[in-house]
Amino acid sequence: MTATAGIERIVGRGCVLRGDNIDTDRIIPARFLRCVTFDGLGEHAFEDDRAQAKGDHPFDDERFAGASILIVGHNFGSGSSREHAPQALMRWGFRAFVGGSFAEIFAGNCTALGLPCLTLEEDDLAALMDAVVLSPEHEISIDLEARSVSSRAGVARAGIPDGVQRQLLGGSWNATAVLLEAGDAIEATAARLPYVNGYPR
Amino acid sequence: MSAAGRNLLQKVWDAHTVRELPGGQTQLFIGLHLIHEVTSPQAFAMLREMGLGVRFPSLTFATVDHIIPTTSQRRPLADPLAEEMLVALERSCAESGIPLFDPASGRQGIVHVIGPELGLTQPGMTIACGDSHTATHGAFGAVAFGIGTSQVRDVLATQCLALARPKVRRLDVGGKLSPGVYAKDVILAIIRKLGVKGGVGFAYEYAGAAIDAMTIEERLTVCNMSIEGGARCGYVNPDDTTFDYLRGREHAPEGEAFERARQSWRGIASDPDAAYDDEVEIDGSSLAPSVTWGIHPGQSVAVDECLPVRRDAPLDERAALDEAFAFMGLEPGKPVAGVPIDVAFIGSCTNGRISDLREAARVAKTGRVAPNVRALVVPGSQSVAREARAEGLDEIFRAAGFEWREAGCSMCLAMNPDKLVGREVCASSSNRNFKGRQGSPTGRTLLMSPAMVAAAALAGKVVDVREHL
Q: Is residue B249 part of a domain?
């Protein structure tokens, strides 16, 4: 397996998607999960929300076109474990997420794809959202090593769990490769578990 | 002072730790991997690309549930996309030696219904499945996680996951539930109290007199919706109820092995002096039947309450309240009882088990489905369907004007032909009331217990099921 280069910095324009508890059914409606590959999911991101907003949705706002950092509220990605959600957003063009908080399975799925989810304090998040809405053309910079998000609103301290930061910096977010390194320790663990072995005497 | 005892999560976690990974994660062995047609095809494709096989096919089981039509399971499936997914699953299972419980097997059903009923789910296990409702299996005292497709690949290839150990919150539900108040009402009340993100970073240990008194099927309902409260896993300590349920199940140990297993299972339960990261008490005897009125499962009221009003809500929740009222077309401050419905759905991994159908049938027997209401009963598995037919429940439902369907996820998530149309309002025994969840982008969902759904179907509006009992 080839080693993947780590991610230290992500620079790009932002897209502001306000609101809390935006769930994965909204990110990618279930009917688009009737597929055996993730190809083509990008164009359906937020399809129903966008249709109901009749063009007044951040994803249809020309000023945010080409943005690579999605800025969201709290509990983003709640609900289903469908990896189709971050896959769709990645294929739309996003490389990182900055928000108040993220649902756990969604954040884990993002990590598995090499997409960082960073959290900001309330005031910093509000300032970042305002700055990006005011001047969507300016570039935001995420520094994973320093755990910071820089924009016209200033430099904000950002949160990301240690283990996730390490995976992203080290290019080891494809966990399969890391897990395989345990080798026979996997079988040794299985051998210790009574239920794997028919509850032996 | 002696060291505090360990809780179930700590015991199971320690027993399954292969090694600690740098940065605070654990490489955790997964004892049971359940797969289905939606989240596994891409994982198998990645595996092929990496030139890897399935490491422990004997610990992996598959079924088909999300896409399966509930009117006819005949092949080829009418929807070519659904057929393609099922064919992909069949091929992957055949190549890897994974048992597939397909419609022809007589054991097909929703993955979280068949795991328990086949005795695959056992106390002390780690369980993973590419579905957020995997916490359901925690009802047996297992540590069960929902995972994404890349993690399905990880488990297929290594039988392991890289995970951070969650904190544990003990939820003590004391007292006795009143008649007409069900497990569904308990979990909806918990989510209302702690919020939809209150459980992020936690595993929920459900305990207390009300949980102790529950059957396994009721505990499955409670654990099922852990993720709706933000908790990736939730569990109940195993006890005699658990062991009695497992005895004689197809994949449960038999004879002397069962006795040895029981000893092992008892030891897995949290120690009486176990420490917790947080503890919350809830008075079960004060609970009433619940109904969600909004667009996430935390937005619920008791059936005898009125909908919230803006000025009583915390400042940071007002925008969400406005959005929910606008989408639902409901008026703040009005009683939830009396809200008209168009569709009634009884089923899902939350409430599609035999005890759910029995409770709903008790109500269905007392009347007929209101004109203009479309009512569906969808058993959670082929086995549930057989049991229900043997008890004559299908006839009770049909006679009352309900449609009796075949096993599957059905209208819980609309990946199959069962969908809301337009702005229909659905009284639903499922788990999510998200915008568009039931297949129409503007469709509206009111979550409640199966008995409450049946009562709503007869009345054509939200009513208090306690009036029927």
A: no
Residue B33, domain extent:
8-163
Domain membership of residue B245 (yes or no) is no
Residues B321, B189 share a domain: no
pLDDT digits (tens, 9 = 90+) for B199-243: 999 999 999 999 999 999 999 999 999 999 999 999 999 999 999
Q: Do B435 and A109 touch (CB under 8 A)?
A: no
The tokens for A65 are: 């076109």
Please, what are the domains in chain A? 9-160 (3.20.19.10)
Q: Is residue B352 part of a domain?
A: yes
Tokens 């419905």 correspond to B341
Quick: pLDDT tens for B1-57: 456 899 999 999 999 999 999 888 999 999 999 999 999 999 999 999 999 999 999
User: Across chain B, what does the average pLDDT equal?
Assistant: 97
Written as one letter, the residue type at A100 is G
Instruction: Give the residue from B106, B129, B163 where a domain finishes.
Output: B163
**How many domains does chain B fold into?**
3
**pLDDT for residue A36:** 93
Q: What is the CATH number for B353?
A: 3.30.499.10
Alpha-carbon Rg for chain B in angstroms: 21
B308 and B454 fall within a common domain: yes
Question: Is B244 within the bounds of a domain?
Answer: no
| A167 chain-B contacts, CB cut-off 8 A | 23
Residue A3: its pLDDT value, please? 56
Tens digits of per-residue pLDDT, B383-418?
A: 999 999 999 999 999 999 999 999 999 999 989 999
Do B329 and B454 belong together in one domain? Answer: yes
Q: Is ipTM strictly over 0.85?
A: yes
Please say whether the dihedral angle defined by the alpha carbons of residues B408, B68, B126 and B206, taken in this order, is positive or negative.
negative
CB proximity B29 to A under 8 Å: yes
Q: Determine, for residues A33 and B29 on separate chains, whether the beta-carbon distance falls below 8 Å.
A: no
Q: Closest Cα partner for B291 from B162, B100, B86, B464? A: B464
CB contact residues (below 8 A), chain A span 56-75, against chain B: 74-75
For A24, residues 6+ apart whose C-beta sits below 8 A from its C-beta are A77, A78, A79, A80, A81, A82, A84, A85, A106
